[in-house]
Structure formats: structure tokens, C-alpha cells
Amino acid sequence: MARSHKVTKPKRQQVDTSGSYNALMVLMGDNVKKAEKRVEEEEPVEQELEEDDIEGAGEEEEEVDEEQEEEEDADDAEEDAEDDSETDKYDPYKLHFEAEEAKYVSVIKSEEWKTSSEKTKIGSQPVRITYTNLEDADELLDFSEAQKTEFSKYTVRPRIKDGFKQLNGSLTSVQKAIYPSLMAYRDLCYATSSLSDTEEFSRLVAMHIAQHVVRTAEEVAYNTRILKRNAEEGIHDVEFRDQGYTKPRVLVLVPTKNACFEFMQLLVGASGVDREDNKARFNKAFHEAGAVLDTKPEDFQKAFKGNTDDMFCLGVKLRNKSIRYYSYFYQADIVFASPLGLKTLVGSEGDSKREFDFLSSIEIAYLHETNHMEMQSWDNVLTVLGQTNLLPNESHGCDFSRVKSFYLDGLAKHFRQTIVACQFVTPTINSVFSNTVNFAGKTKITPIYNGELAVAGMKIRQIFTRFKALSVSDEIDARFKAFVQITLEGMIRSGDYSGTLIYVPTYVELVRLRNYMDEKNISFGAISEYSSITEVKRHRTLFRDGREKILLYTGRLHHYRRYFVKGVKSVVIYKLPENPAFYRELLLFLTHSVDEGTLEQSMAKCRALFTIYDLLALERIVGTKRVKTMAKSGESSYEFY
Amino acid sequence: MAKATEKRVKRAKKEESGSESEDNDAIAQEILDTTKSDNEEEEPKKSSKNYTSVEVDESEEQTKTFKDLGVIDSICETCEELKFTKPTPIQAQSIPYALEGRDIIGLAQTGSGKTAAFAIPVLQSLYENPQPLYCVVLAPTRELAYQISETFEALGSAMGLRTAVVVGGMNMMTQAVALSKKPHVIVATPGRLVDHLENTKGFSLRTLKFLVMDEADRLLDMEFGPSLDKILKVIPRQRNTYLFSATMTSKVEKLQRASLVDPVRVAVSTKYQTADNLLQYMVFCPFKHKDTHLVYLVSENAGNSMIIFARTKSDTQRISLLLRNLGYGAIPLHGDLSQTARLGALNKFKSGSRNILIATDVASRGLDIPAVDLVINYDIPSDSKSYIHRVGRTARAGRAGKSVALVSQYDLELYLRIEGALGKKLDSYPLESEAVMLFSERVAEASRAAIQEMKGEDGTKKRSKFDKKRRRDEMDIGEQ
Fold this sequence. Notes:
- The structure holds two protein chains of two kinds.
- By secondary structure, chain A is α/β, with parallel strands linked by helices.
- Chain A is 46% helix and 15% strand.
- By secondary structure, chain B is α/β, with parallel strands linked by helices.
- Chain B folds into two domains: 8-269, P-loop containing nucleotide triphosphate hydrolases (Rossmann fold), CATH 3.40.50; 278-477, Rossmann fold.
- Chain B contains 18 helices and 16 strands.
- Chain B has helices at 27-38, 73-81, 89-100, 114-128, 142-156, 172-180, 190-199, 216-221, 225-234, 250-259, 290-300, 313-325, 339-351, 384-391, 412-422, 433-438, 440-457, 460-477, and strands at residues 8-11, 52-57, 104-107, 135-138, 163-166, 185-188, 210-213, 240-245, 264-269, 278-284, 306-309, 330-333, 356-359, 374-377, 401-407, 427-428.
- Chain B has a nine-stranded mixed sheet, sandwiched between helices. In chain B, strands 12-13-11-14-15-10-16 form a seven-stranded parallel sheet, with helices on both faces.
- The interface between A and B is medium-sized, with 25 and 27 residues.
- Chain A: Belongs to the UTP25 family.
- Chain A: DEAD-box RNA helicase-like protein required for pre-18S rRNA processing, specifically at sites A0, A1, and A2.
């Protein structure tokens, strides 16, 4: 595995800056020694970081003839400019990023968000589409016009258009529903449990990213050429505001190396590049053959295929004809990273070495397979997003005369497009998505659910009990209380509770229940994502054989392993799983016992607690239709067969 | 004493140059010169000048209005709003020449209205020909830079003026951003401006039309010379340059020759010791009772705003703690404070929420504090120039003021030197020593507590930090 030569480049720059600092000190007739000391102090820190093994982090740029590349880009840009002028194209980029200052400022300041939603169908899948808009945002970019405009009328670089066509064919129904929001730089949240829909969505996103990166890079190169010519002729009054503080414009957060690799294939395909630099090295580090057991569910196979390393950061430079992996961050166009890998670079408050300047000018942030990242650690995602679009600490060679004015005014986050692709929307995703401030507005597409009640193929009693929680913060204690009172005590009193599987979402809830049951002398087994494999094996066996009557089982363990737990006679759900597939699988544990003959069908039962704060998860389990009647406050029980 | 000296306008054509017939640092001489010119003596100092020269006495009544000087209406209105009713002498003399497009050398002290004297012509020119990156003002200290930018902003508010302050000790990136927003006026300390010229890509002063050097003598004192040279090299030769200085040293003259073209020299002879409104006293006391005497003076003048000058930072810190322990609203101002803390301290004092400022010489010059009733010299400054500047904090703009110097047995020599420079003996401050000694016990206790507090917060770590910072404030203090 390639060791990362952490920030060799910045080191050089630091010496540079301290050099000029020295010079200044000399000018002031001051002692220079101190400045030297500063540099010395910093070096050990870097060595420390060199040992850190974040795959792909801060690679040093190999010898590249930047100027020649820029020239090529400028040539391409000139050609394209000719192409573009031929037809009347629809170009949302211009409307969004080159909006008139007075207008966007007034739109941003209004802060009046309006929401409307509609039910429609994408293909055969009924969906709900929610639009959230700022008042008057239409004056900048009329979204209805974006929707009316055909895909072929949008400005797309010819090479990308061809590449995308080859990769994708003509637009699918999913893509048709999405392209106006995506290409009009609206925030977009797309939830679907269908793998093929996800794939189609990703392809379109890859095309959009490629288009954004290539067009902006070419514009910069083209303008540089003009400036150079002007300088030769002694003209100084032309200026271009065409870039951010730092080069990277796109941030792609992916959970695993394999996901990164797969998305990269789409990007390469969609951008239609001829040349891939460092390809062998990238493939070696990110690609790994080998499938997951095919007995596991489909979405699990997809999520854990190939290289599941979740510690990497990768700078990618994308140009009209070539793509380069392992580009130095401050020269890259796209930063691919796992939340953990990027968080390690970004660091947290008080760390001696933090590096997040390269996130200052992100214009598109794409969260890929978001639910998986949620299971990894959502905090990392929040940290990383929190450090985007800030003023960098150092200039990193930025040409300030070309920085776009909305960066200078600190409004960059109002321009950033955030794209979230997920299987299902959870409260955490919702909170991130509703806190983005892109003035173009947002589009959220969620499926309408039929529910998972009938999927067991067998009549199973399913009881949903609503408890009362006054607020989100109160919910945790109220749930525990309700669980103990309604479920646990009655269960223990009845005496017959062998084969009870208690599903808790995370380790935190597991610990609380474990402590309580220890206190009450109730014997049980508990397995979580922190248990060793032997421990898990032992408890599963004991539970299957009926020697342990209760098994506590966490949702995160299920996410990472998808065990098939045997010997289940009753399922108790402490908190509904966000992933409806988990509920389906919990029911399958019961049907399996029935099939095996260890459980009478009439005795099989699944009990769940819920509150009004669980409606998103509940909707996916009982279906969109039923959830409405269940969405009330107060206590009540619902039984389904 | 305030007899209006007649205005002497002398126009001498550019004839010979290279006249370095000037004594370098005869400060006392300088002061004596100025006092002499008050007394209507013959033409002092600089025998050979290769420029138009105008001299005027500060106390002279101005009969002209801004409009008479040729200032355009919109700026006149702003002046009225800001209560600048009449031009001060330096403004009256320099603005007409400046509006003609001449370069200006101004010899004047802070408080004489010189900031507006250069701001108004710059703004007027900018008004007629709006363009970003129009003017650079160089100032020796951060505080002064902020004050200048405030004046510019106030005067230019009607025309939507944008200014940027670029000084050391603040975030380079924020400043780079401010510069790339293309301000009309940049107020800067030379070192940091050079830093930006060298390191901030995309920033240049190619279009500059005005250069103002404020307190040029201090700029040069603080070894900003090389930075100034660098700046002069990269800005266009086609420009107007204003140079303001308190004294005309040979260094300043060299700078003037290097940067100004056919300048008009406007000298305002400030009277340092106007007997009518500044009462200067001294208190002779034993060293060990210095604190007691100080507290007595403070308590006697309680309610008045005052500045106490001390020589060292730890003294300022100690005295402010001491006074606070005794219930007075005291606030220290010295170089160990961060930039924001300094501005904060100054603002608290300005707004009147604290009325005792204890300062090192950082604050002795360049700060425009509107009304101080009393200046106490806890230590006698080592040179008479500093003394003049310290007591110059009070009795400004025609108001009455008092200054008291605490002289201990160790300060005697310094004090005598100052008396010599002033050319007069100071009265002793009327106090009853018995009444003073009543304070001694409480003061001793408060002093002990103060020292204790200082030790408490002064760990070894902090010490090392202080050492680091020292270097930077030395440029503010401008010690010789």
C-alpha cells in the first residue's frame, strides 16, 4: 500500500512564507532566529502525520507541465465556445454562479422558504416530490423553465455528452425526473431502495460533476490565456472573477473504497476521457475482486462488495481529455473521501495540525450511499460538511484578483449544491438536508411506501404500540420507561418468554437495557457490533438452543453482518429500524421458526414501540397510507396480521 | 501668548538641493525652535528649502469655511454632519494646495486635524474620478491606522467609500479578502503592506493615485525605511503624495526628496505648553511613597478622565490592578495585549465606561482620545519629546487640562533635563503630605494584592509568550 507523503508541498510553502517573514523581520531590524525556530517546531508534527495512513491523502503532485495543460484546456475552451455559440443552449450554470450580485443578495437575505409537494410516478414507482424554494429565487433561475427545457438543450461539453450517451444510452425515467433539479444546481435528495434506480441516478450525477468541473476549468484556462495576452499588450483593466480560493470544486463523500471505485468508473465513463493517469495505482489500491456471500440480502452485497476500507482521501484532477488520480489536493478538482478519512485530515478543534483549506471552494457536495455512512459515523460527515466553504487559513497561491465575489463576501455556502443519494431518508439526513442554504432551492424525492407488513408470506401478529413523548429530547427516557412498563414487565410476569429477540438500534440503548436487566436479575444474552466473533457465535448458539431466553441484538450489528438469527419465537422492537429491510428480516426470523416447526404460527408475534418522532421509519414499515392514522400523539396500540 | 502670529508665506523656487544642514536628533532644539516661532522670532531652522512653504500658528482663528477652500458640497455636508464646522489651520492651509493637485508636506501633530487635511482632498479627487485602489495611507501604528480609516469612512460615507485596514498582527487571509474586494482607500502599516504586495497574488497597486505617509518621522524611526522603499518602487510615479510628520529630520527630508514632486510645505507650529489651558505640576515624593501619592492624586481627581503613563508594561498592569482593588475603574493599555484587547481597552476608555487609562508610551502618540482632564506621569519619560507627547493628551482643542509628574529621588536627573528642555520650572502640586500618608496603609495592602494577582496569572508559559510578543510591540512603542 502506498504510504502517503503527507503535505510535502505545504511544507515547502511554509518555508517560503517563513522566508518572507524572515525577510520582514530583517527589514524591521529584528531577530531572525525566532522565525527559524518556528519552522523547526512544525516539522515533527508533519513527520507524525506522515505515519498516518490515509490512503491517497495529500499526494504530492508528480511533475506535470501545468502550463501546457492549461494551454490545451484553453484550446478546448475556444473550440467549445464556438460550438456553444451555434445553438441556443440552456445554461443553468450561468444563471446560478454568475447571477447578479444585487439579486442573489436580496434572495439570500429574504430567508423565506416555501415548501410545496406533489405525488407523481417515476416509472412505475409512486413518489412524493417536495420542492423548497426561496421567495423570488425564480427571478434568478426560473425552475419551471429548467423543467420545461429538454435535456438535449442543456449546455453540456460535447465530449461529455458522447461519453454519457455511451455509458447510459438515452435518459431513463428516473433521470428524466431528476435532471432539471440536478443541473439547475438545486439541492437534491433522492431516496430509493431500488439498486438500479440508484445506479441510474449516480450516472447522471457523475455526468453533472464532470460537466461542472470541465467547464469551469476550461473557463479558467481560457481567461488565463486572455490575461496573458493582455499583459503582453499592456492592458491591465480586464479582470475575471472565475474561481474560488482553492481549486477543488467538488466533494464526493463515499463510504468505502469500492463505492469510490465504482463511482469513479461512472465518472470516467461519463466524462469520456482518453487518458487516465496513475490508473494502475488507483486500481490496485481501490479495486478488489471478490463478492459477498450471495445468501445475504442484495443491498448488503452491494454495500460490502470489494474493498471495504473506509479510510481514504483522494484528489482527482479532471480535464477535457484526461483524468488524474492522486492529484495533490490543492491542484485537484474533485476530492473523493470517506468521512473518516477526510475527518482525520480536517481534525477537530484544538488539534495541532488541521487541514481543511481545500474545502473552502466546494461548489458541489455529493453524498453517495448516505445510509451506509450514517452507520459508519454521522459525526464525521457533519464535521466535514461543517468545514466546507470557510475562509482558508492560508492563501495556497490563490490569485485574489480572480476570486468570485460571493467567496469574498462569505456567501459561498449559499451557492453550494448538496446532493444526497440514499436508500431511505432518516431524521439525521433530513436535518442535514434541511439546513443547507443553497438559494437555488431544494428538491427531495422519496418513494411512497406499501409497507413491509405482508411480506412475510404468512400471518404474523404485529403489534405497534405508541407511547407518549413530549419532545425529541424527552423521547429517549420516555421510550425506556414505556419499554419497561409496557413490554418488559408484562413479558417477565407471564413467565413464558423464551426465544425473545430484542432489537435495539445501537449500542447505547443496548447498554441501558443490559444494565436494567442485570439489576432485575433477568438472564439474557447481548450481542452488538463491538462483540467479538466468538462471542456472537456463542450467544447465537445458546439462543438457538433455548438456553438463553432473551437476546439483545443491535441494528448496527445487523447492518454490518446481516445474521440470520435462529430460534426466534417473539420479536420485540425497542426502536423501529430505519431500514425497512431490517424489519422484513426480523419477520423472516419468525417465519423460519414456524417453518422449522419450533413455533406455532398463531404464537408468532412481533411487538414494536413507536412515537410520533419515528414516523419516517414507521411509514416504511406500515406503508404511507396507514401511517397517517397512526400519526397521533397519546398512547395507543395497533395490531396487524 | 496666543497672539496671532502673522501668516508667513514664503515662496522659494526650487534652486539648490542636497541641503543636509540639519542636526539629526536635537529634540530639545526642535521644541525650542517651535516655542521660539510662537514668540514671533525670525525664520527658524531649515535655511534652504526647495519648496513652497507656508507656516501658520495653530491658535490662529480661521475665518474660512470648507467651502471657501474649494471643497465640494457633498463633502462639506458630511463635514457639517460630523461637526467639523471650521477648518483647522493645517486644513485651511493645505487643502487649497492639495486640491490644485500639488504634493504636500505637512508638519503637524496629531490632534491638529491633519487626518481630515489629507482625507478631504483625496476624497474629493476620488469623487471626481471614482476608481478602486485609489489611495494608500501609511501609518506607523495599528491604532493610528484604524483611526485614519474611521475618519475616511466617516467623511466618505455619503459617497459609498470602501476602506481596508492592513496592519500587522491580524489575519493575512481576511486582509487579502478585504484587499481583493477592491477598496478605494487602504490604510496600512508599511511592513504588512509589503507582505501583501509580495505574497498576495492578484494584489497590485498599479492604479494607485495617492500616497499618504502619516507620522513619517515615526515610520522612519521604526525602521520601516526599507519597506517604504519597496512600496515606492512598485507604485506608479504618476501620483500625488502627501507626507505628514511631527518633526523634520534629515531622514524625513531624504524620504521627501525621494517621493514628492515640487511639494508645498505646510507647517503648523503647535504650542506644546499653552500656559492658558494646560497646568503642569510636579510632585516630589520619595520612591517608596509613589503609589500612595498616585492614589491620592487619583482620588482627588476622581470622576475626571485621566491617563497615567508608566514606563513598563508590568507597571501598567500592576497599577491598574492596584487601582481596581481600590475601586477605581482603571484599564491598562500596553503592548502585551492583543490587538483586539487593545482596541477594546481604548473603546472602553473612549466611551467612558472606564475613566482611568494606564498606558505605556504605546498610547502616548497617535491616539486621538477626545477629552482627558488629567495626565499623570508615574515615571518620568527618558526624553523630553515623550514628555511633550504625554502631556499633549490633555488640554486639547481649547479645553483646560492638568498634568502632574511624580518625581522620585531617582527621577531627578531626567526631570531636570525635561525642565531644561521646557525652559521653565513646574509648580509643585498643592497637597498636604499628612492627608496623603493617610492612604498609605490601604495602598500598601492593595499593592500587595495586586502583585499577588500578577504572580498568579504569570506562569512560566505566559512569560515565554510575552517574550515572543515583545518584539512586535516594540514597533508600536518606537523606543530609541
